[in-house]
Amino acid sequence: MNILVIGTGYVGSTTAMVFAELGWQVTGLDTDAHKIKQLEQGLLHFYEPGLEALLRKHIQSGQIKFTTNKDLAIQSNDLIFICVGTPSRPDGSADMRYVKQVAEDIGQKMNGYKLVITKSTVPVGTQEQITAWIGAAQEQPYPFDVASNPEFLREGKAVLDALNPDRIIIGSNSKRATNLLQSLYQSVKCPVVITTPRTAELIKYASNAFLANKISFINELARLCDAIDVNVKEVSNGMGLDPRIGASFLQAGIGYGGSCFPKDVSALILTAKQNSIELSVLEKVVQVNQTQHAYLIDKTRERLGSLANKKIAILGLAFKPDTDDIREAPALRVIESLLSEQAQIMLYDPVAVLPNSAAYKAVTECSQLEEALQDADAVLMCTEWPIFRKIDWAQMKAVMNQPNVFDGRNMLDAQDMRALGYFYQGIGF
Ligand code: UGA
Fold first, then answer.
1. Is position 200 within any domain?
2. Distance 256 CA to ligand 1 centre (A)
3. Residues 265 and 172 reside in one and the same domain
4. In this structure, are 215 and 291 located in the same domain?
5. What is the 3-state secondary structure (H, E, C) of 163-210?
6. Are residues 153 and 285 in the same domain?
7. Residues designated as active site
8. Cα dihedral sign for 23, 29, 32, 36?
9. CATH number (domain holding residue 268)
10. What is the tens place of the pLDDT at every residue in 25-41?
11. How many domains are there within the chain?
12. Most-buried pick from 22, 125, 352, 381 (CB within 10 A)?
C-alpha cells in the first residue's frame, strides 16, 4: 500500500516516518517548499529525539519521499492521511480551514478509490464533514471512504510512542476502510478498537482532557499540601500505586502547556456548550491551569518581597523536556508575569528559544546555564530538563546573589537543596 501523508508538521512527519519504519512506501506532502527541501535533505524543522535519524534512514532506504506536487501525490496514493494543523480560534473552536482545503484537493484530483484518514485532532463530526467536502468537490464520482485514526504520541517521545502505541483506534463506517487500516497496522502489537468515526474523534479529545484533569487535580491538591504541611510527591506516589488511578500525569507543577492539552480541552468544552451540555469539571481544570504559574510567582514574592529589579533566573522554556516547542508553555506565562512586575529575567533553556517579539525584549537569553544564575536572587525551574538535575548546586550557590530556588517542576531533591543552604520550595512540598 502506498501512503500519502498530507502536512509535514509534528504529527505528519512522525506519522510518515513511522509508516516507513513499518515497511510501507510513504510520500510526505506539504505546500511549504522550504520545509520539503529540508526534509529531502534529512533535516527536521523541529527538535524531536530519534526522528531525524529515522528520516535519514528512510530517505536512504527509499522508503520515504517528499513532494509539493499535490495533484500527482493524490493520484499516485490510495491511502491519504490528513495531518494538517487545526489551530484554535479565539473562541476555542478548532480552525478547520486547512482540513477543508485538503478535502477539496482530494475530491478534485482523485482518480480512483481513496481511503482518507484523519490523524489530526479534529472535532466530533469531522469525518462527516470531510466526506461532504470531498463529495462536493468531486468531478467524477470515484468511490472513497473517510476514517478517523487519532494519534496519541507525546512530543519528546514521538518515535517511541508511535511505534509502540497503547492502542489503535479506528473510527470507520466502512468494512473496506477498516480492513485496510487493520492491515496497515498488522505488525503493531496492541489492542485495536474499531468504532464509529464520531466515537474515535471523541476518544482523542476525552483522553487528552482526562490527562489534563489529572494534572489540574494534583496541582490544586498541591496547594492544599502546602497549607497543611504534606508532601504532594508522596501523595502522588501513594495514590499512583492504585492501578485504578495510575502514577502518570500526577506530577504537580506549574501546569500543562503544549499544542494539545490547552487547545483540546477548550475545544471539548465548546463542543459540549454547542450541544447545551456543561462540562463543569473541565472548566475548572482550565481555571486551575491558568492560575498555576502565578502560584510559583506568589511563592517567590513571599520570599523576596517586591520583584522589581530582582534578578530572576528562569531554567527551562519549552512546555516540557526533550522538545523545543514553546506553544502555551507555562514558562512563557511566568516570564510575562515577572516582566509585568519589572523583574530582570535571565533565561536558559538547552534547546528552546523565545519568539522574536517586542514583548520579550527585556529578557536576557543565556547560552550558558552559569550565565543565567550569575547574581540571581532566585531560580525558577520551569521545565524538567534532565541536565538540570545534574547542576552542581553547591558551586552555583557561590555565583548567586541569594540562594533561593523555586521548583515549578518538583524535580530537585528538597532535602539535598536545603542541606546545601538553599531556601528551596517546590509546588506542594
Ligand atoms: C499530549 C498527550 O500526552 C498525547 O497522548 C497526545 O497524543 C498529544 O498530547 C496530542 O494530542 O498530540 P504532549 O502535548 O506532547 O502530549 O505532552 P504531554 O507529555 O502530555 O505533556 C503535556 C503537558 O502536561 C506538559 O506541559 C507537561 O509538563 C504537563 N504535565 C504532564 C504535568 O504538568 N504533569 C504531569 O504529571 C504530566
1. no
2. 7
3. no
4. yes
5. HCCCCEEEECCCHHHHHHHHHHCCCCCCCEEEECHHHHHHHHHHHHHH
6. no
7. 260
8. positive
9. 3.40.50.720
10. 999 999 999 999 999 99
11. 2
12. 381
In a domain, 201, yes or no: no
Dist CA 318 CA 314 (whole Å): 11
Alpha carbons 259 and 147: distance in angstroms, whole number: 23
Same domain, 376 and 410: yes
CA–CA gap between residue 252 and residue 381 (Å, rounded): 13
In a domain, 205, yes or no: no
CA 327 distance to own-chain centroid: 8
Is position 202 within any domain? no
Calculate mean pLDDT across residues 302-324: 97
* Ligand 1 centroid to residue 322 C-alpha, Å: 12
Q: Are residues 138 and 267 in the same domain?
A: no
pLDDT of 162-200, one tens digit each? 999 999 999 999 999 999 999 999 999 999 999 999 999
**Same domain (yes/no): 156, 296:** no
pLDDT tens digits, residue range 135-161?
999 999 999 999 999 999 999 999 999
Distance 93 CA to ligand 1 centre (A): 20
pLDDT band at residue 76 under the 50/70/90 scheme:
very high
Residue minimizing CA distance to atom 12 of ligand 1: 260
Q: Whose CA is nearest to atom 16 of ligand 1?
A: 154
Closest CA to 149 of 98, 207, 209, 197: 197
Give yes or no: residues 175 and 214 share one domain.
no
pLDDT of residue 377: 98
- Domain co-membership, 332 together with 288: yes
> Closest residue (by CA) to atom 32 of ligand 1?
256
Q: Ligand 1 pocket: which residues have CB below 6 Å?
A: 121, 151-155, 208, 211, 215, 249-251, 253, 256-258, 260-261, 319-320
